[in-house]
Amino acid sequence: MADAACVINSNEGVNTMKSNLILCTAALMLAACQSNPLPSLATAPHVDLQRFMGDWYVIASIPTFIEKGAHNAVESYALNSDGSIATTFTFRAGSFVGETKRHTPRGFVVDTQTNAVWAMQFIWPFKADYRIAWLADDYSLTVIGREQRDYVWIMARTPQIAEADYQRVLQFVGAQGYDVNLIQKVPQQWK
C-alpha cells in the first residue's frame, strides 16, 4: 500500500508540475504577445558628431534620481579617438551655491547610419538607451530621450531659450508619448 501511495503522490507531483509549466508558458506567451502601445521614439535623421560635441545647458528634464534639484546643469561631449564619446555632466546640487556634482559616463554610437542612437555607460558593463530625438538644424537646441519614455532632456547651447521655442519642443516631446507634466525646468544662472 505504501508503494501505491507513493505512485499516487508521484503522479500528483507530475500533474502539478505539468500544470505549473503550462501556466508559466501561457503567462510568458501572453507577455510576449503584448505590444508596446507607443511607436519607436523619433530620432534625428542625421547627427554630425563633430558639430554635436561641446557644451549643452540642460533647460528642462524628467530628471533621474541623481539630478533631482540640479541647478546650472551642463552636459559636455568630446569625441574620443576610438569613436566613443567622453561625457561630463556637472551641476550644483539643490541651489546655485550647492555642492558641485560631476558624472562622467561614456557614450557609444549604436546607430552609425544616423549617429542619433547611443548607449550611455555610467557603470561597466551596463549601458543605457540614449537617443537624440530631435536636433535643430543649427545645432542650437536638442531633445534627448529614451525608448522607455522614462527620462527626457531638453538642452541648448545657451542657458536660456525663448519661451516659444520651449513650448514648441514640449509639444514635440508630448507627441513622442512623454507625460509633459513630469518635465521640470532646470534653473540656470550664469554671471
SSE succession: HHEEEEEEEEEHE
Side by side, the strands of the main sheet go 1-2-3-5-6-7-8-9
- The appropriate CATH architecture of the largest domain is Beta Barrel
Spatial shape: globular
What is the number of helices? 3
Distance between the termini: 91 Å
Q: How would a crystallographer describe the biggest sheet?
A: 8 strands, antiparallel, barrel
Name the assembly state: single chain
Q: What is CATH's topology name of the largest domain?
A: Lipocalin
What number is the mean pLDDT? 85
Query: What is the alpha-carbon Rg in Å?
Result: 24 Å
What would CATH call the class of the largest domain? Mainly Beta
Q: What is the domain total for the residues?
A: 2
* Secondary-structure content class: alpha+beta
CATH homologous superfamily classification of the largest domain: Calycin beta-barrel core domain
Total strands: the figure is 10
Query: Beta-strand level of the residues, as a percent range?
Result: 25-35%
Can you give the helix content as a percent range?
25-40%
Low-confidence stretches: 1-11, 14-35
